[in-house]
Design goal:
It contains four helices and no strands. It has about 110 residues and is mainly alpha-helical. The radius of gyration is 33 Å and the shape is rod-shaped.
Length: about 110
Amino acid sequence: MTREDMLARLIAQAANPDPHGGVELITLRAIVEEASELGANRALDRLGLSDARAQDDIDELRELLSAWRDAKASAWKAAVEWLVRGVLALLLVGIAVRLGVGEMLS
């Protein structure tokens, strides 16, 4: 029996409630569970992640994303280091000009 068949049976069962007590809670929970599972499977199908290689694809995407994050962090770190070096170099040049080091060398 497929999930669609199971869901159809549960809905039919809920459509004909017990005249004394209404629809049983267990029937409603089963409907929600089957509908959720069916919806999740449909979403995975639409994303192309329902085959046997899906886990490998997800693992590969996670590795790629991790590498991207590492590269981005390294690039920011390098940019900040170069910026600090540039500021320090300008500061040293400013101090040298202020002290008249250029005139001493001439």
